Amino acid sequence: MLMTDTRDPAARSRLLLTLLAIALLWPGIHYSELDLRVLIASDSQSEMGRFVSAFWPPAHGEEFIQILLQATLQTLAIATAGMALALLLAIPASLLASRALSLSAASRAGRPSFWGQLLRWPVRSVLIFLRSVPEIVWALLFVRAVGLGPTAGVLAIAITYSGMLGKVYAEIFESVDQRPAHALLQSGSGRLAAFCYGILPNVAAELLSYTVYRWECAIRASVVMGFVGAGGLGQQMDLSLRMFAGGEVASLLLTFLVLVLFADQLSRLLRWRLA
Q1: What is the pTM (predicted TM-score) of this model?
Q2: Among 110, 150, 226, 258, which is most exposed with the fewest C-beta within 10 angstroms?
Q3: How do residues 64-90 score in pLDDT, each as one tens digit?
Q4: Which residues cross the membrane (predicted)?
């Protein structure tokens, strides 16, 4: 009678992967000084209870609503203006960093020449530098340079997001079939015509979806940068926290939630229209 082996052949590999994950996770927990016992301590729970109870009811006075509306509009303005400036930098940079419109690639079956690759490296390096520094760091620098206010937030978003958008746009351009654009280039069309008719129709939906997603991220980033003096909802939330005004903080959090939901629905609507 044949004996069947009931042992799982992948059990040993899963056990090794689990032990490896624990070994890698433990130093991070140790050096971050994470102490979960603080959450269950009686003093922490009572203090947290008092803090959360102060959130209700949300502030809804006429004067605060006017301040809230102004801060919301300023947050949207910071995110939108920063994204607009970022697009002005990202679109040409992505075209220069991508080989989709390379004349040498069009004549070499999609393989760019050595000099073509070499000329794209400076653009790619600039994009790496722009996105490597977080927007909160740029905001701190610009607050020192131009003073408190939304200008610092707009410039911080413009610099960081131009690097992010430029990198992703270039990868999107290179991910689609480039033969239509190369055929247009070889037939004598200009680069702009080759881009508009050979590449853009295939990537428009993906570009729009990612751009709206980045705009949503810019809204969140503008709120965070407000804590360093860049204006908007974040700056107002910082003031409310300093004054221990829990109701105002609750209203600000609800407004921020509505903004994110609005951006998500807008992205879904635009993707549906382009589908």
Answers
A1: 0.77
A2: 258
A3: 889 889 888 988 899 999 999 999 999
A4: 76-101, 136-159, 243-263
